[in-house]
Amino acid sequence: MIKTLSYKHQRTIIIVAFLILPLALLSVFSLYPAIYLFYMSMMTWDGYSPEKTWAGFSNFNELFHNKEILSVFLHNFVYLLWGLLQNALGLCFALLLNSKLRGRNVYRVILFMPYIMNGVAVAYMFNYVFNSEYGSLNTLLHAVGLDDWAISWFGSVKFVNHVLGFITLWKFMGFNMVIYLAALQSIPSDIIEASRIDGASRLQIIWHIILPNMVRVIELNLFLTIIGALEVFDLPFLLTKGGPLGASDTYVTKTVDTAFSFNNFGLASAMSVSLIVAVIVILGVQRAVIRRWEK
């Protein structure tokens, strides 16, 4: 029967047939949860009672007037700073390992290995490194006579977020390096060789040729870094439980506590919706900045 149809109709039927399953899965696992999340943000619900009470925008009003919730964004900002450093180091290592360096494949594997490690394993490994009593870092500091530097790293309000940010840098820098390395290898070597013949220095080649050809990849990595900084959960949850005194709480850990510790699923849903909106806004701003840089 399908053979009697025109090529245009056959093509349309085939495209629709291939799209039905992906669109169905997208609707069930992405679109429906997002709509239901927005619906829940308009409700007051403790997670147990069968009935939900309509609250309108009161959850959002409470969210934006709660300084304790909004202040945790400052903790996420620390992760963003470490994430930007992570991108810079990833790019530097990519530039270095894209050259004719002996053993470069071994170095690539070593730098990428932390990314493929399980997050829980990484958390427990660094728990032994930064432990105040028997941690390897404090043991090393005592051994070299820097006793005053040996502190309770996870118990310090001043340093705890920087310690956690350093762990994220250690884990994800290799991923950024591999992405940048792939982008570097896609740049035609003829352009670089021509610029060298014209007398361009290494720095000029990087700034005027390599980086402009990597704008899209840089944009992608920065977007992933920003999203990762906003959605940090596993490390503070596993290592500090938000302590000391809530100093390492992040927006997501605060959202989870609001829902499952304080049984306020309406406010937690409003926090999740606000995070989605923040991500969309940040993506728009980043896109505008990148376009301006391209021009």
What structural keywords apply?
single chain, 295 residues, mainly alpha, MetI-like fold, 14 helices, 71% helix
Description:
The protein has helices at 7-41, 58-64, 67-70, 72-97, 104-116, 119-129, 136-143, 160-185, 189-197, 202-210, 215-230, 234-239, 251-260, 265-294, and strands spanning 43-44, 53-54. The protein has 14 helices and two strands, in the order H-E-E-H-H-H-H-H-H-H-H-H-H-H-H-H. The longest helix has 35 residues, at 7-41. Strands 1-2 form a two-stranded antiparallel sheet. It folds into two domains: 2-59, no CATH class; 66-294, MetI-like (MetI-like fold, Orthogonal Bundle), CATH 1.10.3720.10. The radius of gyration is 25 Å and the shape is flat. It is mainly α. Helix 9 packs across helix 10 (202-210). Strand 1 and strand 2 form a beta hairpin.
List the helices and strands and how they pair.
Elements: H1 7-41, E1 43-44, E2 53-54, H2 58-64, H3 67-70, H4 72-97, H5 104-116, H6 119-129, H7 136-143, H8 160-185, H9 189-197, H10 202-210, H11 215-230, H12 234-239, H13 251-260, H14 265-294
Antiparallel strand pairs: 1-2
Helix pairs in contact: 1-14, 2-14, 4-8, 4-11, 5-8, 9-10, 11-14, 13-14
